[in-house]
Design goal:
Blueprint: H1 3-16, H2 22-33, H3 35-50, H4 59-72, E1 75-76, E2 88-93, E3 99-105, H5 132-148, E4 156-162, H6 170-176, E5 183-196, E6 200-202, E7 205-208, E8 210-219, E9 223-224, H7 234-252, E10 259-268, E11 274-275, E12 278-287, H8 290-310, E13 314-319, E14 330-332, H9 334-348, E15 353-355, H10 365-371, E16 374-382, H11 404-422, H12 425-430
Helix pairs in contact: 2-9, 2-11, 3-5, 4-5, 5-11, 7-8, 9-11
Bound molecules: nickel (II) ion.
Length: 431
């Protein structure tokens, strides 16, 4: 073989090899695990955990994020450019295309923390029971990694600290602010208490369901419980409504098209011997396709109104409002799935990258995916010692802080590698 042939082979190999090799990915994890970085992340996370804030009220959380970004010398939206009330959008890199976004949700839940520990929530009735304090910290960790290695960035990383994931649809307002224009791809993660530590799982296509809420007031005529014929009983009407709603999935939906209707709220009456004037019920409905979701919405209203009238009651039904919008289904981009598997395999080891079946949970990350190719995944944080960890949204939920460097390193690696591959238009098509 002559010299020219060798030279061409070497040239081909160097073109085929990703510009950012595995070395960088593992280096990021080592970097994030360093004592000083890890203890900084733990400190930030605990500070946020002690002061949980609900959707669109994350003012202190927003301040902490901005302070940390300031310390790192990372620019973000100024006060004149408000994003979803408390949102923060930062930028690292050249400021030029391509743009890739990493997203963390910021809000807590209206729950009283039941875990007794030094950094327990200091706000009665509010708790970070979904790990969003960890997500914010991981994104700050990723920011630290990216800023430290900004010389290798071939474009711009957009850091999205997003308010109000828990029902408020903060993602939609972030999009409406226009701050993600020109973003080519977006990645989001969620911690998972039951899955093995350091294992990620997701899938191509539909991962999570579309979700909506409804609330109905069923009104009759109150009176003495011993003289029911002088009243119009809304408790009986509402009870029949609940039963009839269950027929929507069992009798009207294709058994192979997964759907859920759950009535989770039923309020009415205050005494054993009084028929109340009205009963309020509320619940959620889920489906994987837009068609099934809208069909459920239409039928839920008809069933409630119709069934109430069978019992001589009136009913009004309200669906998700502006601050509680319907969430679309979370649908992962097929090309990004392949890309994610490659990067996650390099950072965590291929055995730690798992496929999962879709499930009926919902995420407002789906709003991004409606306009930007996006990828959402879970990262397990259960170590072997913990046999029965409390689930997400439990007042006993605990974040395993050891997972923080893993989330940070993986998100940072996804951004770096994406920008690097996005330099080649042909390769980008394959993403
Ligand atoms: Ni969550």
């Amino acid at each position: 073989m002559n010299l020219f042939k060798w030279a061409s082979i070497i040239l081909i190999i160097s073109l085929v090899k990703p510009a950012i090799s595995n070395g960088v990915s593992t280096k990021f994890l080592e970097f994030a695990k360093k004592d000083e970085i890890f203890s900084w992340m733990v400190g930030v996370r605990r500070k946020i955990h002690e002061n949980p804030e609900l959707g669109y009220q994350e003012f202190e959380t927003s301040k902490i994020i901005k302070q940390e970004l300031d310390k790192m010398g990372i620019t973000y939206n100024n006060d004149k450019h408000e994003i979803a009330v408390t949102g923060v959008v930062g930028f690292i890199g050249s400021g030029d295309p391509p743009f890739v976004a990493l997203r963390a949700d910021m809000d807590a839940l209206p729950l009283q923390e039941m875990v007794e520990w030094e950094h327990k929530s200091k706000v009665p009735g509010k708790m970070h029971a979904c790990g969003h304090d960890g997500h914010v910290t991981m994104l700050l960790g990723a920011a630290k990694i990216l800023k430290t290695h900004s010389h290798i960035l071939k474009g711009t990383v957009v850091l999205v600290f997003q308010p109000a994931e828990e029902g408020g649809g903060g993602a939609k307002q972030v999009l409406d602010s226009g701050s993600l224009e020109n973003v080519e791809a977006i990645f989001g993660l969620h911690v998972h208490p039951e899955q093995p530590f350091g294992q990620v799982f997701s899938r191509s296509g539909t991962l999570l369901a579309a979700s909506g809420f409804f609330e109905a007031i069923i009104t009759g005529k109150g009176g003495h419980a011993a003289i029911p014929h002088h009243s119009i009983d809304p408790v009986l009407a509402a009870s029949n409504v609940v039963v009839s709603l269950q027929h929507l999935v069992s009798r009207e939906a294709d058994p192979l098209d997964s759907q859920v209707v759950t009535v989770g709220m039923f309020h009415g009456g205050g005494a054993f011997n009084v028929i109340p004037d009205s009963v309020t019920i509320g619940g959620t409905f889920r489906a994987f396709s837009k068609e099934s979701f809208m069909q459920l919405r239409e039928r839920i209203e008809k069933v409630i109104v119709g069934q109430a009238s069978v019992h001589r009651c009136n009913a009004t039904v309200e669906f998700s409002s502006k601050n509680k919008p319907f969430y679309p289904a979370t649908i992962n981009h097929g090309g990004l799935h392949k890309f994610f598997k490659g990067v996650a395999g390099d950072v965590l080891g291929v055995n730690n990258v798992q496929e999962t079946a879709p499930f009926m949970g919902a995420e407002d990350f789906s709003f991004y995916q409606e306009v930007i190719p996006g990828y959402f995944y879970f990262i397990g944080m259960n170590n072997e010692k913990n046999e029965e960890p409390a689930s997400l949204h439990s007042p006993f939920f605990q974040l395993n802080e050891d997972i923080l460097p893993y989330g940070a390193a993986l998100q940072a690696s996804l951004a770096v590698r994406y920008l690097s591959q996005s330099q080649h238009p042909k390769k980008h098509d394959e993403l």
